[in-house]
Amino acid sequence: MDNQKCTHDSSVIISRILLPEDANAAGIVHGGVIMKEIDNAAGVCAVRHTRKICVTASIDRLDFHKPAFIGNLLTIKAGINMTGKTSMEIGARVETEDLLTGTKTHLASAYLTFVALGPDKRPVPVPPLTLVTEEDLRRNREALARRALRMSEKKKEYECQRDENKC
To answer: Which pTM does this prediction carry?
Structure first.
């Protein structure tokens, strides 16, 4: 396993133009197209951090604040917020730019959990994350809170499956 790494070591910015095949008949881009781009950017970030094959374990809440349209430039900024033993949380910010006017819009944000895999396709340890800036510290605190909430929800779901009186 590599030594500790900083967020900027694996952060990524990926952009692409949105085309007619990405949209519905009204010219509004499908949410699934944007979700795929979020997953791609976060996946690159995860692999850069671990230098291992990584897979998506979960995507936390994804809300679209505004629509994206054919001809917009879609930009995803992704960075690691927190590492666990074999997993990491990656934050993704999605923006669009109207290339004719230069107007940039915050389209969506999402938090994804990725797991690193070894040659046997089983989870392997990930390098720890070195927190350098105040922004790194804030994002890490928020990620730890989201992780605690996810674990609590997972536990409740498990209990509910085993005993319907706990639902």
So the answer is: 0.89
